[in-house]
Design a protein that fits this description.
Blueprint (H helix, E strand, L loop, with lengths): L1 H4 L2 H8 L2 H26 L12 H17 L8 H14 L2 H12 L1 H7 L10 H4 L4 H16 L3 H14 L4 H13 L3 H14 L4 H13 L3 H17 L4 H12 L3
């Protein structure tokens, strides 16, 4: 399901025009609808006792609505246009000439490959593969994102990490970094979405648990924060981890008292 939901808005931003965005949205909605049908049938969700009192057609409609709403909670609504502009205008400052030219060449070809995507089928490969974005280019983009973060330009870094998370949406490390950058701007809801998606991909990310607890506290959701703290404590007990996480967790817990 995440192959549709996590890429939808990112691809619309990459389209770069209102008309293209509307066309992409229509295609994605059709594809998402078909995929939800596939998921419901594959997992046998119609047999859920909670829905047995409903006729089959209404069961399916309710399940699709529930699945869609769950997916929306992980939707990363990020404007990618600034990222593309920064990479084009400033990328040469952080990359050698060969890496910069490689990156720009592949970014410039994104619209061509977007038009070739069949969005009515479940994707078999990642978006970066479909758009012919090489691993070396992802590394170059990441280098610029990290540099902007180190400079304290968190808005730029956030947009670039958002682009990376769109291109490589099953990379929990990128989503984690996106969340960290969001916390620097006190975008607690956006940060929580990123950490939630990262934990969806890897539930053992201690850092994402700790910072999720922080986000919940900032949003005054104390019980949710306690749950994340409890899970982080469990992970710390069963894994060999950096002592910094214990210190951060203790600091967060102290604010609950």
């Amino acid at each position: 399901m995440d192959d549709f939901t996590s890429q939808k808005k990112g691809i619309n931003s990459l389209k770069g025009s209102n008309e293209g965005s509307l066309m992409a949205k229509d295609k994605f909605e059709l594809a998402e609808d078909q995929f939800l049908d596939f998921l419901i049938d594959k997992e046998g969700l119609l047999g859920d006792p909670k829905n047995n009192l409903l006729p089959p057609a209404q069961q399916r409609k309710k399940l699709k609505k529930d699945l869609h709403e769950s997916a929306k909670q992980l939707d990363l609504d990020i404007d990618l246009a600034p990222a593309l502009q920064i990479l084009r205008d400033e990328g040469a400052t952080y990359l050698d000439e060969e890496k910069y030219r490689e990156m720009i060449d592949q970014l410039n070809k994104i619209p061509i490959y977007l038009d070739q995507l069949n969005l009515t089928e479940v994707p078999k490969v990642s978006l970066c593969t479909s758009l012919h974005i090489f691993e070396s280019t992802l590394d170059s983009i990441n280098k610029v994102a990290v540099a902007k973060y180190d400079e304290g330009n968190f808005e730029a870094s956030y947009s670039i990490f958002g682009l990376l998370a769109t291109l490589d949406h099953e990379n929990e490390e990128l989503l984690y970094r996106l969340g960290i950058t969001a916390t620097q701007m006190e975008k607690w809801v956006e940060a929580l979405k990123s950490f939630t998606y990262a934990l969806y991909l890897n539930s053992d990310l201690i850092g994402a648990r700790v910072f999720s607890a922080q986000c919940f506290l900032k949003l005054e959701k104390v019980e949710d924060a306690k749950e994340e703290i409890k899970e982080a404590r469990r992970l710390i007990e069963v894994t060999s981890t950096d002592p910094i996480w214990k210190e951060l967790l203790a600091s967060i817990e102290s604010s609950l008292k």
